[in-house]
Design goal:
single chain, 410 residues, alpha+beta, eight-stranded mixed beta sheet, 8 helices
């Protein structure tokens, strides 16, 4: 039996407050931000960042006098410590906090999902009630299996946002097939094999998201070439460029969500494990010529993998990564493989695409790994590049908890 895996989602919900209470909330956020800045300023010059206990002895009495609750102060220590450590790690200068945000402990808020309201403790023992602008797609997290954790409260441009974290422990389902997924510029090709390495199904999921995004990028680049010296100083040019690039980004995000949702549906239908390529330095390579080099920066293969992974995790479906070396050049079924051109091959008596061959071999590699025969990982895969939520390489059971975080936007 597999160990439970903890999945965490973050829902961003806009909130409104009754008239008169917004001032209390903004004042609390200002005091919270200034308190974090106070701790950062005083520990920045120290050779070592103090521990939580040392921070408590240094600042607790001073911060409580400002009207903050004990858990507020505890979160302030944690936030300041994180800011200083991360800034030093990146060799940055002393940070200056400007945003009005606060991390709220579970004991400092009361969430009522029936009335869609939340009460938050502010300064001097006062509470502020916020009405959440609820979205219907969040109802799937109200079945009782998801437990709320700490929240993040943010105020910017006169609007209040509440980031609610929900988590639950998930046990992976038993699998009966393995699905290899080959990511391409205009389609996703998948091949499903059973536990006896026999072919079950082959499918293609086409999409036009990348070509549409590239169209808007081309418009932005033409605008910059037309006004190479002064486009930054022309208000209309900056706005047009920003609008086109924003559309391109939204198209890519929507495409990644659509493809990942479809892949999880197919995997659930066949009770399959999803096998992805552990792609390495694709954007840095020069293979493919100028055309592909222009397309690669917008190819969101990491985003597709990440979205598929957390959607699959919520459904209890495993996702693994294998080395894609020679997957499009090796015969998957022992028959003679003959290359017709860069896209099509002849496999035995059948003409098919190299994408099918690649996804088929990925499925077989994934099957070997699930059986316990380890495949060779790429030696320097940057886990922090895009797929931040990948499990530790090696035995998937060696890590008990895997945190999957995704921001749910309006």
């Amino acid at each position: 039996m597999s160990l439970p895996v903890r999945a965490t989602v973050t829902a961003r919900v806009e909130a409104v407050t009754p008239k008169g209470d917004e001032g209390l909330l903004v004042e609390f956020l200002r005091v919270y931000r200034d308190s974090v800045q106070l701790v950062v300023d005083e520990i920045w010059g120290l050779s070592e960042v103090p521990s939580r206990t040392e921070l408590h002895n240094m600042f607790y009495s001073r911060l409580v006098k400002l009207g903050l609750r004990a858990h507020h102060v505890s979160e302030i220590y944690k936030r300041a410590k994180e800011v200083v450590e991360s800034t030093r790690k990146n060799n940055g200068s002393k940070p200056v906090l400007k945003k009005l945000t606060a991390r709220i402990h579970t004991l400092d808020y009361r969430l009522d999902l029936n009335t869609k309201t939340i009460k938050i403790a502010v300064l001097y023992g006062k509470w502020v009630e916020l009405k959440l602008v609820w979205y219907s797609y969040l109802d799937k997290y109200l079945d009782g299996s998801w437990k709320p954790g700490e929240i993040l409260l943010s105020y910017r441009y006169g609007r209040i946002y509440v980031y609610i974290t929900l988590h639950k422990d998930i046990v992976f389902k038993e699998y009966s097939t393995v699905m290899g997924v080959d990511l391409n510029f205009n389609n996703i090709t998948y091949t499903i094999v059973n536990l006896n390495s026999e072919l079950v199904s082959i499918g293609v999921i086409p999409f036009r998201g990348l070509s549409r995004a590239l169209h808007y990028r081309k418009l932005a680049e033409k605008l910059q070439r037309r006004h190479p010296r002064n486009w930054r100083f022309l208000k209309w040019a900056r706005r047009s460029r920003a609008r086109w690039l924003s559309r391109a980004r939204n198209i890519l995000v929507d495409t990644a969500h659509l493809i990942s949702k479809r892949l999880v549906e197919v995997a659930g239908e066949y009770n399959a494990v999803i096998v992805f390529e552990d792609l390495e330095k694709i954007k840095e390579s020069n293979n493919g010529g100028r055309k592909l080099s222009w397309m690669k920066p917008l190819w969101c293969y990491r985003r597709i993998q990440e979205y598929t992974e957390y959607k699959a995790l919520i459904e209890g479906i495993r996702t693994i990564y294998v080395d894609p070396a020679r997957t499009s050049r090796k015969t998957p079924n022992g028959k003679k493989l003959k290359f017709i051109n860069y896209r099509f091959v002849q496999l035995g008596d059948t003409v098919t695409s190299r994408d099918v061959v690649a996804s088929w071999n990925l499925a077989l590699k994934g099957l070997k790994r699930m059986r316990g025969f380890w495949v060779k990982w790429s030696p320097d895969s940057p886990r922090s590049e895009a797929v931040k939520t990948r499990a530790k390489r090696g035995n998937p059971e060696t890590k008990k908890y895997l945190k999957i975080t995704t921001a749910i936007h309006k």
